[in-house]
């Protein structure tokens, strides 16, 4: 079905780093919401948003987890904004091999922001007391694509790590056990 | 499974370098909750009264509150408990910030330090990997500086660091523990940490905190958030701006300091400056704050932004909260710029922002009055501000007279002699207090000052308005949506409270009413300190989002401990009594329970006696303030009773008279 044009609601969150005061409420609620059952536990390390927080340098950057990437970037630029120096990684949304951000702390599998799927408003936005996060929706004509589910992303990581052969063998063994 | 708490403590023996992860008994949590409650139980069980603050047997306990790490807004307190070198009683100082939730995520409810490390070390807790690491390269470093260096060295920008500065290393009796934008300041707990040879405790955690009934719990959290919004939009009318809103006093946000600067006293808690706040001062102070305050910031999972990053030109950035904004300024008769500037150094040194300026002003008063002389202050600058910097360094380094001053006004005065004691006039139980000098004795505050085990007035008050509102209509409006009261009678107490006439201070609220009010206020603080809740969203302001009616639900659905108001009230009373028992065992008696000598101009000895006697009875204590056998039994504290008997501490009223006699003797 790819290639066809289709109206789609694009969900965006506007981030205002001047308003963020680094409370990490967004991390708390995101991780609680994605626990199963919902809200049964929380752990900011499992959150799909993270706050880069460095009060002494007045740096507060909320970033949402984006795509998983196999390899880290070769070079990283530095940005100076309002006299403050940021590493390119500060703004990067990728779940990447060179850092622990946006990975399940136990399995190492990547996390990705899903805009809190069934909720009216993303919960991190709802819980941000400073309005540093503002939710916006807009309609756009897009080419339809098959969305990659969490399971597929996870599998892709495992394939990268162990190779397709090992993985199919393992799955074969596991299904044989049933 | 354990809910809200992890069920494990970390036991660190610094003498032997041994670390153990120890499972805790869930029955203790039921009886004493977490944080302060179980801290007190451990201190009672393991630190007998013969143990001094600086003995290896003294414990230093960092307890995360029971609900820390859960989504409950503003629940982030670490309760640090030990024996205080300053008061020689139990100290329990709280810090907000980010440390307690991180400890929970690392998988522990408490860190219990015992023994002494021969060399300076820091503790690195990274989930189940825990190490004692060498800190010799951090010796003498500032508290904030230390945190930055350690995070860098561990390559862990997300680690949370609780550290001491030079003051703690040198066992200054009013040294603090600093952490992010917060500190545990009172009672000299930083000195105990320094004495144990621990420069910092560093935590990073990535495990889960579980909730017993998730949907009920998150619903409660959302209600609290909604109510905070409501209160932000509806500040309380007819009270000072600092009292009208939520959060710990919003000192970093407000510009108008008329109330503090004209009502609180300057110097060594003596001089009122009723005309201080002029338009010129207001403009200048506003410019100072606006130019140096980079951003208002919050503690973990809280919207209130009670702290700020402060960047004074030419100095490293630091974080400030609450009243330390004014304490140095007012002690030195200076301006806000000086206050913000010297607080940077004092924060790095790791010092209590209440005690330190008062100790310095006390030293200068002794000099002025010839009790100390110029010889005691070699090469001291002439100007006032220079003298404060000079004294700060001398105290922290324990050099010359600074060595004596580093023990606080009470102990310093004793050592200096020559009637220096008359100048250490703002203490309760040997600890410096907020410099307030008022005219009419206030019965509610009298009880809180005298009997508070926290020995710090700012951490006992709240809930009930500090004074009557002038008009009956105003009072009626106030009580309309006052659902936080534990009992309807409190509304009537307030409705009938007048500025003048029969129903005014000091004889109204009546003695009985005062007992009810003080007990309610204190109960809320003790609940906060066990749950790890910030007082700024609970016990400290009027009409807070957390109160006696929703706390039991938070505990039931969060921690999975069946709870109702009655049971919670009893638990709070249980560990409150235990804290008192620890202090009684250490010799605290009625004679110690008095406000600073000249705190109020108009005193009422008969009324004060009546207040104290009635309150003691109300609390289940005998005439000496010692919990009675009956009240101990009722709370399930029979082991306290047995210990008292063994030590010959009498709980019967007859013996109280002989104790009174000894108190009299001490007076002579
Ligand atoms: S939108 Fe939802 S999933 Fe994405 S970061 Fe926010 S809370 Fe998490
Ligand atoms: S909740 Fe808002 S203010 Fe708090 S850290 Fe997240 S983005 Fe910043
Ligand atoms: S109310 Fe203020 S002091 Fe309390 S947790 Fe929130 S930001 Fe911290």
From TrEMBL, chain A:
Top-level taxon: Bacteria
Claim: Metal-binding is one of the keywords in the record: yes
Keywords of this entry: 4Fe-4S, Iron, Iron-sulfur, Metal-binding, Repeat
Domain 4Fe-4S ferredoxin-type as annotated: residue spans: 11-42
Subcellular localization(s) per the UniProt record: Cell envelope
Keyword Metal-binding: yes
GO MF, one annotated term: metal ion binding
GO CC annotation: cell envelope
Protein name as catalogued: 4Fe-4S ferredoxin-type domain-containing protein
Biological source species: Desulfosarcina ovata subsp. ovata
UniProtKB/TrEMBL annotation, chain B:
Name of a matching Pfam family: AFOR_N
Key word Nucleotide-binding present: no
Highest taxon in the source lineage: Bacteria
InterPro entries: Ald_Fedxn_OxRdtase_dom2, Ald_Fedxn_OxRdtase_dom3, Ald_Fedxn_OxRdtase_N, Ald_Fedxn_OxRdtase_N_sf, OxRdtase_Ald_Fedxn_C, Tungsten_al_ferr_oxy-like_C, W-dependent_AOR
Named cofactor requirement(s): [4Fe-4S] cluster; tungstopterin
Signal peptide residue numbers: none
A molecular-function term among this protein's GO annotations: metal ion binding
Domain Aldehyde ferredoxin oxidoreductase N-terminal: 8-207
Protein name per its UniProtKB record: Aldehyde ferredoxin oxidoreductase
């Amino acid at each position: 079905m790819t290639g066809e044009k289709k109206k789609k609601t694009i969900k965006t969150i506007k981030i205002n780093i001047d308003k963020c005061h680094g409370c990490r409420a967004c991390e708390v609620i995101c991780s609680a919401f994605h626990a199963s059952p919902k809200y049964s536990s929380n752990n900011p390390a499992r959150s799909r948003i993270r706050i880069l927080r460095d009060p002494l340098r007045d740096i507060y950057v909320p970033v949402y987890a984006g795509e998983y990437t196999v390899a880290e970037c070769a070079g990283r630029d530095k940005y100076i904004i309002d006299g403050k120096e940021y590493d390119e990684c500060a703004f990067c949304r990728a779940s990447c091999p060179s850092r622990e951000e946006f990975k399940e702390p136990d399995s190492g599998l990547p996390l990705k922001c899903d805009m809190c799927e069934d909720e009216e408003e993303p919960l991190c936005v709802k819980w941000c007391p400073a309005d540093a996060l503002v939710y916006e929706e807009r309609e756009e004509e897009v080419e339809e694509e098959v969305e990659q589910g969490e399971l597929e992303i996870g599998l892709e990581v495992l394939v990268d790590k162990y190779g397709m052969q090992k993985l199919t063998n393992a799955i074969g063994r596991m299904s044989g056990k049933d | 499974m354990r809910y809200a708490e992890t069920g494990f403590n970390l036991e660190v023996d610094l003498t032997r370098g041994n670390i153990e992860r120890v499972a805790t008994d869930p029955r203790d949590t039921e009886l004493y909750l977490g944080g302060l409650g179980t801290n007190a139980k451990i201190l009672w069980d393991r630190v007998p009264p013969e143990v001094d603050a600086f003995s290896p047997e003294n414990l230093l306990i960092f307890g995360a509150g029971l609900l820390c790490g859960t989504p409950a807004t503003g629940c982030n307190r670490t309760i640090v408990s030990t024996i205080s070198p300053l008061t020689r009683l139990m100290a329990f100082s709280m810090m907000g910030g980010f440390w307690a939730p991180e400890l929970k995520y690392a998988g522990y409810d408490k860190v219990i330090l015992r023994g002494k490390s021969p060399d300076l070390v820091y503790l690195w807790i990274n989930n189940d990997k825990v190490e004692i690491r060498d800190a010799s390269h951090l010796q003498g470093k500032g508290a904030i500086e230390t945190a930055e260096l350690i995070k860098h060295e561990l390559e862990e920008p997300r680690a949370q660091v609780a550290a001491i500065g030079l003051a703690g290393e040198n066992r200054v009796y009013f040294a603090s523990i600093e952490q992010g934008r917060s500190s545990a300041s009172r009672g000299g707990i930083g000195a105990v940490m320094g004495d144990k040879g621990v420069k910092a405790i560093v935590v990073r955690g990535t495990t889960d905190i579980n909730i017993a009934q998730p949907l009920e719990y998150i619903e409660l959290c959302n209600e609290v958030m909604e109510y905070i919004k409501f209160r932000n939009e509806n500040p309380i009318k007819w009270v000072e701006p600092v009292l009208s809103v939520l959060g710990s006093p919003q000192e970093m946000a407000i510009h108008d300091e008329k109330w503090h600067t004209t009502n609180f006293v300057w110097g060594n808690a003596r001089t009122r400056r009723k005309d201080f706040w002029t338009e010129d001062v207001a403009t200048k102070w506003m410019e100072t704050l606006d130019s140096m305050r980079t951003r208002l910031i919050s503690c973990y999972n809280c919207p209130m932004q009670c702290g700020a990053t402060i960047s004074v030109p030419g100095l490293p950035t630091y974080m400030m909260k609450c009243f330390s904004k004014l304490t140095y300024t007012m002690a030195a008769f200076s301006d806000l710029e000086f206050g913000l500037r010297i607080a940077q150094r004092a924060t790095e040194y790791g010092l209590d922002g209440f005690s330190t300026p008062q100790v310095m002003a006390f030293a200068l008063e002794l000099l002025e009055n010839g009790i100390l002389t110029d010889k005691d202050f070699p090469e001291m600058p002439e100007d006032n501000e220079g003298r404060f910097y000079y004294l700060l360094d001398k105290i922290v380094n324990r050099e010359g007279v600074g060595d004596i001053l580093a023990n606080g006004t009470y102990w310093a005065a004793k050592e200096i002699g020559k009637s220096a004691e008359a100048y250490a006039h703002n203490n309760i139980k040997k600890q410096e207090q907020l410099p307030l000098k008022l005219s009419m004795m206030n019965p509610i505050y009298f009880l809180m000052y005298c009997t508070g085990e926290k020995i710090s007035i700012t951490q006992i008050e709240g809930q009930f308005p500090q004074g009557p509102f002038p008009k009956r209509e105003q009072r009626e409006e106030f009580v309309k949506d006052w659902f936080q009261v534990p009992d309807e009678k409190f509304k009537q107490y307030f409705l009938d409270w007048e500025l003048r006439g029969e129903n005014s201070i000091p004889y109204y609220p009546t003695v009985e009413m005062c007992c009810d009010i003080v007990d309610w206020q204190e109960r809320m603080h003790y609940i906060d300190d066990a749950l790890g809740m910030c007082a700024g969203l609970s016990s400290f302001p009027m009409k807070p989002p957390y109160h006696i009616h929703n706390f039991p639900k938070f505990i039931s659905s969060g921690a999975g401990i069946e709870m109702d108001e009655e049971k919670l009230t009893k638990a709070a009373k249980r560990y409150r009594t235990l804290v008192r028992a620890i202090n009684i065992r250490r010799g605290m008696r009625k004679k110690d329970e008095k406000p600073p000598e000249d705190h109020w101009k108009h005193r009422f000895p008969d009324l004060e006696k009546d207040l104290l006697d009635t309150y003691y009875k109300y609390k289940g204590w005998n005439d000496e303030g010692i919990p009675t056998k009956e009240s101990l039994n009722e709370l399930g504290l029979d082991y306290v009773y047995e210990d008292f008997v063994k030590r010959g501490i009498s709980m019967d009223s007859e013996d109280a008279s002989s104790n009174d006699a000894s108190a009299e003797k001490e007076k002579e």
